[in-house]
């Protein structure tokens, strides 16, 4: 199917994405998968699923011509400022479209010596990401964003747990959008960020226009762009970005749903004893409580869970002193409130908040959190469990020898940090919510979320 759009219709990209998703959603009258909840459908002692789900998975079909153009562009190094970087350089298909290296941020720029601003996220499972908004926490995950609402003061935070996500429904929370701060609403908008960033692909509008006008895919791109594409450079550029987005939406490798967990959901696999234990701890509101934000249940529409609630959290991650920008003690990356020029005032209740990423394929990553400060899932679990119990494990000491907790967030914004939801509700002297073995068990469960090639 070919889509022909005028410039004024380009913001309607979400509508086109929804059209593409219609086969994914299933035909009217098809049997709906029931909503699976760990409380009623806990895995049996042999690791099997007593309540298998009929998941609605995306169909496998050939890429449209527009998506084929997007694929060629995804691997086209000539689009970058130095001709050495493509989208795939940061988003490696062999690493689930995330970084292949263990450096906290990617080195880019015209000389490949500039540190990127933040850790490179995966491009997988972004096709169902809602647009950015600030509004009431949705008690049911993945049901679409609320209307945009301004901050009303301090970000009061009701408790949220894996067993009762609706208890936080009154919270005014940022949600949706792409990048760590939600500054783009569509994949089409997202493509321009890395392309023009001087520390990433370091390209320019002129260079990109020259390349898309003299590339192996140019004839096909102009054919689909029609007379407007031939006459208006901006229109052709928009069509090219649309092609990159179509590739990420249509190619099933970006949303394969081929993990062991997906097979378990459908009754085709069994957890090992350690994976089963980790799954139960993951969903236990008094232990891991991970599912409060990284939702793992199948909703009533039968779509596979994305392991994110699309919301934002201030977790007080330690300052990563390997980042050159952080050598300046006055420099802080404040996430959501830095998405607009005056955001540190207008969005102050959300300073320090970053997107909750999907946990799918997280076991294959080498760096975690927006600043890449942690290097393994186990380190991440340790931080969640021991942040305020043993802060000396994570935070640096000042000149006076005292530990400086939350050292990557100015004092005036530390009230935004989540200290309510388990296991982040512990204080110095408390017993940790998870012991060492239990943390290992959750890591074992998270490893079941890795997509398997050829499935």
Give a summary of the structure in a few sentences.
The chain is mostly helical. It is built from 13 helices and six strands.
**For the residues shown, what is the average pLDDT?**
87
Oligomerization: single chain
- CATH homologous superfamily caption of the largest domain: Cytochrome c-like domain
> How many domains, in number, for the residues?
2
Structural class: mainly alpha
- Quote the beta fraction: under 5%
Region (Disordered): 123-169
Keywords: Heme, Iron, Metal-binding, Oxidoreductase, Peroxidase, Signal
Domain Cytochrome c: 273-450
Protein name: Cytochrome c peroxidase
Structure description:
The protein is mainly alpha-helical and 455 residues long. Mean pLDDT is 87; it is low at 1-37 and 141-150. Strand 1 and strand 2 (114-115) form a beta hairpin. The chain contains 13 helices and six strands. The strands form three sheets. It has a two-stranded antiparallel sheet. The protein folds into two domains: 62-132 and 186-254, Cytochrome Bc1 Complex, Chain D, domain 2 (Orthogonal Bundle), CATH 1.10.760; 258-449, Cytochrome c-like domain (Cytochrome Bc1 Complex, Chain D, domain 2, Orthogonal Bundle). It starts with 12 loop residues before the first helix and ends in a 9-residue tail after the last helix. The protein is globular.
């Amino acid at each position: 199917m070919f889509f022909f759009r005028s410039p004024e219709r380009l913001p309607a990209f979400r509508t086109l994405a929804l059209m593409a998703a219609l086969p994914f959603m299933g035909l009217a009258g098809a049997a709906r998968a029931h909503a699976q909840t760990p409380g009623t459908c806990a895995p049996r002692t042999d690791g099997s699923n007593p309540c298998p789900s009929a998941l609605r998975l995306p169909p496998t079909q050939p890429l449209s011509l527009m998506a084929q153009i997007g694929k060629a562009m995804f691997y086209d190094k000539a689009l970058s400022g130095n001709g050495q970087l493509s989208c795939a350089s940061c988003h490696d298909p062999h690493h689930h479209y995330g970084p292949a290296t263990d450096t906290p941020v990617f080195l880019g720029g015209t000389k490949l010596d500039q540190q990127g601003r933040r850790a490179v996220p995966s491009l997988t499972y972004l096709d169902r990401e809602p647009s950015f908004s600030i509004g009431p926490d949705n008690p049911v995950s993945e049901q679409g964003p609320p209307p945009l609402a301004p901050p009303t003061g301090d970000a009061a935070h009701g408790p949220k747990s894996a067993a009762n996500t609706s208890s936080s429904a009154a919270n005014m929370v940022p949600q949706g959008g792409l990048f760590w701060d939600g500054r783009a609403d569509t994949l089409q908008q997202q493509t321009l960020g890395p392309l023009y960033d001087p520390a990433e692909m370091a390209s320019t509008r002129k260079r990109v226009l020259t390349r898309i006008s003299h590339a192996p895919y140019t004839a096909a791109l102009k054919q689909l762009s029609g007379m407007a594409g031939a006459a208006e450079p901006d229109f052709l550029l928009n069509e090219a970005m649309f092609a990159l987005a179509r590739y990420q939406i249509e190619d099933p490798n970006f949303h394969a749903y081929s993990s062991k967990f997906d097979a378990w959901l459908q009754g085709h696999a069994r957890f090992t004893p350690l994976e089963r234990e980790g799954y139960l701890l993951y969903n236990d509101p008094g232990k891991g409580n991970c599912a409060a934000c990284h939702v793992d249940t199948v909703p009533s529409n039968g779509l596979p869970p994305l392991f994110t609630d699309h919301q934002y959290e201030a977790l007080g991650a330690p300052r990563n002193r390997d980042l050159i920008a952080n050598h300046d003690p006055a420099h802080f990356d404040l996430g959501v409130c830095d998405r607009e020029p005056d955001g540190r005032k207008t969005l102050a209740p959300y300073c320090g908040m970053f997107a909750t990423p999907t946990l799918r394929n997280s076991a294959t990553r080498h760096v975690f959190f927006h600043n890449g400060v942690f290097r393994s899932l186990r380190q991440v679990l340790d931080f969640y469990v021991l942040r305020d119990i043993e802060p000396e494990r994570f935070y640096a000491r000042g000149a006076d020898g005292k530990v400086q907790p939350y050292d990557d967030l100015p004092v005036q914004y530390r009230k935004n940090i989540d200290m309510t939801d388990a296991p982040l509700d512990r204080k110095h002297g408390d017993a940790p919510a998870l012991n060492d073995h239990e943390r290992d068990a959750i890591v074992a469960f998270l490893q079941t979320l890795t997509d398997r090639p050829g499935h």
